[in-house]
């Protein structure tokens, strides 16, 4: 029997945004979830839907109180146990909390296509929208991918963002190779190498349709790092992540700049900042092989910040300088 739904359909602006955390067993989904919950960010009116609390292992310092099937986290975030019926769980969550954001941490043997199908139920589409799928990929698993079957590939094929995790357990020279292979097989996704799922919050929060993302100028040049924890410390100081920047007030040739982006090595996975073209300045937000543009109303000029894995920053800056046409 179809469950009785009490909620009235909200306006599009009031719908809950759903972010699905996927990935094979042991890849690091729980580590990513704990990291998200530790960020100094507003998680009020957010629900985390998990398979079992025992599997989540949320640090006790994050817990404020517990009830039957529900744990209240810091910043007003609510954690709920996932029942066997996902659609019923989501309806119950909406009726109880009316959240603006829902995280679903699926089990490592869950097929994301089944979860996507549930979210496409006509009753649920009135209440919530699947905003983004983040798949955590153990780097060792990628090398042995032929052994894991169709489910493993479906978890990757459905992703908007793939975190190539545990790169500290593989040979450094394999990382750019794995990134290149991922992009060759899944050209529509973003791929970012991580240690313990450490990414900057902007990468996670950036919606799949990132063209509508506009960063505030005051935040643009704040130092950002993919391996920063909640206190701003690098948990792996020896990791060869590199950051560098490029600044120039002159005009960039638009065609040459796009060719520059196309030719970036896969191990340069984060670029952001304004770029000055002849008739306008636009804001670039580039993550894991995909770049999105938005309007820029700040000072003219090109000011780009880069993050890469053991990348040759000087060579990339030299190539970028060759895009300048206003001398």
Biggest sheet: strands side by side, in what order?
3-4-5-2-6-1-7-8-9
CATH architecture grouping of the largest domain: 3-Layer(aba) Sandwich
Number of structurally distinct domains: 2
Structural class: alpha/beta
What radius of gyration results from the CA coordinates?
Answer: 21 Å
CATH classification class of the largest domain: Alpha Beta
As a percent range, the share of helical residues equals 25-40%
Q: What proportion strand?
A: 25-35%
Sequence stretches where pLDDT stays below 50 over 5 or more residues: 1-7, 52-75, 210-238
Tell me what the structure shows.
By secondary structure, this protein is of the alpha/beta class. It folds into two domains: 12-159, Rossmann fold (3-Layer(aba) Sandwich); 217-321, Hypothetical Protein Yjia, Chain: A,domain 2. 28% of the residues lie in helices and 27% in strands. The protein is built from twelve helices and 14 strands. The protein has helices at residues 29-38, 53-56, 86-97, 112-119, 122-125, 139-143, 149-157, 174-185, 201-205, 217-220, 254-262, 313-321, and strands at residues 16-23, 46-50, 63-66, 70-73, 78-81, 101-105, 128-138, 161-165, 190-193, 241-248, 268-276, 281-287, 290-295, 302-309. The protein has a nine-stranded mixed beta sheet with strand order 3-4-5-2-6-1-7-8-9, sandwiched between helices. Strand 11 and strand 12 (281-287) form a beta hairpin. The termini are far apart. The model is unreliable at 1-7, 52-75 and 210-238 (pLDDT under 50).
């Amino acid at each position: 029997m179809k469950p009785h739904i009490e909620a009235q359909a909200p306006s599009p602006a009031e719908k809950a945004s759903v972010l699905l955390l996927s990935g094979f067993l042991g890849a690091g989904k729980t580590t990513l979830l704990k990291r998200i919950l530790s960020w100094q960010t507003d998680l009020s009116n957010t629900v985390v839907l998990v398979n079992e609390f025992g599997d989540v292992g949320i640090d006790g310092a994050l817990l404020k109180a517990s009830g039957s099937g529900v744990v209240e986290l810091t910043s007003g975030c609510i954690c709920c146990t996932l029942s066997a019926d996902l659609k019923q769980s989501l309806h119950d969550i909406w009726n109880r909390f009316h959240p603006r954001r829902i995280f679903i941490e699926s089990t490592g043997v869950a097929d994301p296509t089944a979860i996507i199908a549930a979210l496409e139920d006509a009753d649920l589409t009135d209440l919530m929208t699947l905003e983004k799928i983040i798949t955590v990929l153990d780097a060792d698993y990628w090398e042995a991918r032929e052994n894991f079957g169709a489910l493993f590939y479906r978890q990757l094929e459905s992703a908007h963002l793939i975190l190539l995790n545990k790169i500290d357990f593989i040979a450094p020279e394999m990382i750019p190779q794995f990134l290149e292979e991922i992009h060759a097989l899944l050209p529509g996704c973003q791929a970012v190498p991580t240690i313990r799922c450490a990414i900057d919050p902007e990468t996670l929060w950036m919606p799949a349709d990132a063209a509508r993302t506009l960063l505030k100028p005051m935040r643009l040049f704040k130092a950002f790092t993919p391996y920063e924890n909640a206190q701003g410390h690098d948990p792996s100081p020896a990791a060869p992540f590199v950051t560098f920047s490029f600044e120039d007030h002159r005009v960039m040739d638009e065609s040459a700049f796009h060719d520059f982006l196309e030719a970036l090595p896969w191990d340069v996975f984060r670029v952001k900042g304004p770029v000055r073209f002849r008739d306008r300045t636009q804001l670039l937000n580039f993550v894991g092989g995909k770049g999105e543009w938005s309007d820029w109303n700040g000072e003219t000029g090109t000011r780009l910040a880069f993050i890469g894995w053991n990348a040759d920053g000087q060579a990339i800056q030299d190539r970028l300088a060759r895009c300048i046409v206003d001398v």
